[in-house]
Amino acid sequence: MKQFIKFEERNLAEELIESAIRFKSSPLIQQEKGKGKRIGLIFLNPSLRTRVSTQIAASNLGIEPVVLNMDKETWALEMRDGEIMNKNTVEHIKDAAAVLGSYFDLLAIRAFPTLSNKMEDMDDFTLHQFIKYAQVPVVSLESAVRHPLQSLADMVTIKENLQGKKKPKVVLTWAPHIKAIPHAVANSFSEWALGCGHELTITHPHGYELDENFTKGAAIEYDQEKALEEADFVYVKNWSAFQSYGKIIQVDEPWLLTAEKLKNNPSAKVMHCLPVRRNLELSDEILDSERSLVQQQAKNRIFAAQAVLDKILS
Ligand code: CP
């Protein structure tokens, strides 16, 4: 495996899930494997979990992590090839990524979408510019369209909570938000849940349909109450509109997930990638209850990243 930017195939996903579970029980079992290697963790956007969990994962394997907040701490980057750089950008991605590729054995990049240039976002333009010019293995720390490390951690968390179910019913439910939020987590979750063979229902208000490239094979249900029936796992997430790209469409119905909405389903577990807006996306009563898997998901981010880095080192 030379890069990790999306779901590739079920066997590989299952191998990574098993590996993450092994690392969770013995985090330092391969602590010499990455000795002498260095990973650059490049953030063009904020992060708590991804930043820290990937550093810990690298350290557990003996890899030295170096974090670079490229949005604040380095020169303003020009991403487009062939530009006359007579405006605000100071350094071209071609030069910066080549330099980073010569400093590091691996690079990991977080590059959110613009939510204004749909075509560029859908092509994962920034991520691919890094890949093109860095010439070393690249791991996505969330790109314009996907967040595969989060999804791998989510699949590990589902596996840990299956309680004997072979094909769990997994529901991805839209939640309210005050800002326009990217589609990456929802896209990736759908891609991985379907890829891993789970039964997936996606529920959202009209106008919030996701890119069909990610949802083919899922049931789409506009009635949240109906979608939640007999769910084993409920994944809560906001995303902005995809068709009316990056827009927030007014929704009058209450889409906040509450304990009341799950009262007929006492065994359903609730997931969220965090950060979460309490009592806007998810109620306190759910987040602070036995149903909630959010802390387990966050912890599993370490071992998901460790499984991926270990596989790349192999
Ligand atoms: N879930 C997640 O990626 O969290 P951060 O944005 O804090 O890294």
Descriptive report:
The protein has 11 helices and 11 strands. It folds into 2 domains: 10-146 and 299-313, Rossmann fold (3-Layer(aba) Sandwich); 162-292, 3-Layer(aba) Sandwich (Rossmann fold). It has a 5-stranded parallel beta sheet. The chain has a 4-stranded parallel beta sheet with strand order 2-1-5-6, sandwiched between helices. Helix 2 (49-60) crosses helix 11 (294-313). Helix 7 links the parallel strand 7 (169-174) and strand 8. The longest helix has 20 residues, at 294-313. By secondary structure, the protein is α/β, with parallel strands linked by helices. It has helices at residues 10-25, 49-60, 93-103, 118-122, 125-134, 148-160, 184-195, 212-215, 224-228, 284-287, 294-313, and strands at 38-43, 64-69, 77-78, 91-92, 106-110, 138-140, 169-174, 199-203, 219-221, 233-237, 269-271.
